[in-house]
Design brief:
With 185 residues, the protein is α/β, with parallel strands linked by helices. It has 7 helices and 6 strands; from the N terminus they run ααβααββββαβαα.
């Protein structure tokens, strides 16, 4: 996991050297404020950018001014829930591409959680990755998560060059009605 097309590109890294992350954080805060004030009720915010301990990225809560960002969310949309990827505790925990062995616990107390899974192991469109999870496995992931007081976030990437809600091909499209049928019982 953690692949990015420009992460190991020397020219991109050289161009980014010396950039002031605070400028981007300021821009980010403005974008979040706009989202929270101009688009009605927001129920759920999924941030995905604090990785201060990874060998790549190395941006964390201080870089993004996460405490202030979360305070803005609480002020403008107090009912919204926020994940744990600001580099500070959020309203729920988000294990990625694995299922916890039991209900998730933080400081000795159970916490809300959501397993972040992909349909085929890729978060974005990958023409050559046809290793889709079977409908049976997807249902098992859902049942397993719910049995441990969790939720399932299932990512389905759109086809290349599109911004559509339609599924990319017949192959992955066939999996979702099976889950729908299971849930309607």
């Amino acid at each position: 996991m953690g692949l990015h097309p420009q992460r190991d590109d020397e020219a991109s890294n050289a161009a980014a050297k010396g950039r002031d992350t605070r400028r981007h954080a300021h821009y980010l805060h403005g974008q979040v404020r706009e989202l929270l004030t101009r688009h009605g009720r927001i129920d759920y915010l999924f941030f995905d950018f604090s990785y201060s301990t990874r060998t790549w990225g190395r941006k964390g809560a201080d870089d993004w001014q996460s405490e202030e960002l979360l305070a803005t969310v609480r002020e403008l949309q107090p009912a919204a829930i926020v994940n744990d990827r600001l580099g500070i505790p959020g309203d729920f925990v988000t294990p990625e591409q694995y299922q916890p062995q039991a209900s998730m616990v933080r400081d000795g107390r159970r916490v809300s959680w959501e397993a972040c899974q992909t349909l085929n192991g890729s978060w974005g469109y990958d023409r050559d990755n046809l290793a889709y999870k079977s409908p049976d496995l997807l249902i098992r992931l859902l049942v397993d998560g719910v049995s441990k007081e969790g939720n399932l976030l299932l990512n389905v990437a759109p086809p290349a060059g599109t911004l559509t809600l339609e599924l990319p091909t017949v192959e992955p499209r066939a999996r979702l009605p099976v889950i729908e049928l299971f849930l309607s019982r």
